[in-house]
Amino acid sequence: MKRLFLFLSLLILSKFSAQNWATEDQYIQKFAKYAVEEMEKYKIPASITLAQGLLETGGGQSRLAQEGKNHFGIKCKEDWTGKTMKHTDDAPNECFRVYDDPRQSYEDHSIFLSTRKYYANLFNLDMKDYKAWATGLKKAGYATNPRYASILIGKIEKYRLYEFDNTNSKEVLYAVLKMYPNLKDDRSFMAQLETEKYTKKPKQPVIVEVPYKQTSYAQQQKRVEKIKSRAEVLNSILIKSHPNDGLKYIVIPEDTKLEFIAKKFKISESKLVKWNELEGDVLHKNDIVFLESKNSDGNTATYKAEAGEDMHDIAQKFGIKLNKLYAKNRMDEGQKPSAGQLIYLIDRKPRN
Predict the structure, then answer these.
(1) CA-CA distance, 262 to 270, in Å (whole number)?
(2) Per-residue b or e along 186-219, where b marks 16 or more CB atoms closer than 10 Å to that residue's CB
(3) Please, are residues 51 and 27 in contact by the beta-carbon 8 Å criterion?
(4) pLDDT (tens digit, 9 = 90+) per residue, 250-266?
(5) 240 pairs with which residues across the strands?
(6) Contact partners, residue 6, CB within 8 Å, separation at least 6
(7) Rounded Cα–Cα distance for residues 301 and 328 (Å)
(8) Using an 8 Å Cβ cutoff, are 57 and 96 in contact?
(9) What predicted TM-score, i.e. pTM, was given to this entire model?
């Protein structure tokens, strides 16, 4: 009798001390925040990101998610230089990316979508139209399953993930609590909510190198703050979509090294040099840098060169390969246009 009483007591206590959720509910509670953060940075609907994570990981239970922190099944590809693991997917022992933290996987997923040409049209869609995004992903070849779009939409509607498309990173935990009101009895979640409420979220630390210069402490501190603010500006660079067929590019806000951009966007320096026809490793403020290969043609027929512009400037402005631009205009490599010269961007310049 005493044993039965003890068993019942433990059962009752366990019910009040911990909340039992289905695996997919637990996944949403844990990773909705990451999906919303990525939505703010890359304009990808949080509902789509979260539904893809749910599907790819089986609610966080897949081997790739458990061992490799890889939540989106992203394979190594030729430009990946990080850790890897072998996993059987479409073929035996395929190479997959490994991350130190799931948050890295979420950001890499955003970069993967936003820097590849075949996903460019997605970013012309309404960010709150999850059905169009799901259909667009399937059309772009993200997955081989013919039902991929309908499966994503099913996940989104079953768990009301579209609610996260209407929130922000500061309010996302309240949205989770509204969706799962019984979380008010979960001490761990409520502690996290209280921490978010009363603690200002610290910025990611900015590590800078300050060259030594013999000067006063006050002057040196001013130099440190100036360099720190410059580094913060560089860390805030966002990917843009070019009018020329949606090519992905960035505008350099402050002078920096090519190495920094390569590391930030996980693209090799050699590819950036090739795609942008660069001659050095220093990038200057307002430089245009493409994150994929440029096109052979422009999106407009002609352009009048401005004073001081060279052909490389024009090639970057219109997203055209430099050698193609020279050929279209019957110019030698290195030849500069004159101010007001008509530059052909699609067809070849007629012979005189």
Answers:
(1) 9
(2) beebeebbeebeeeeeeeeeeeeeeeeeeeeeee
(3) no
(4) 888 888 889 888 888 88
(5) 249
(6) none
(7) 11
(8) no
(9) 0.60
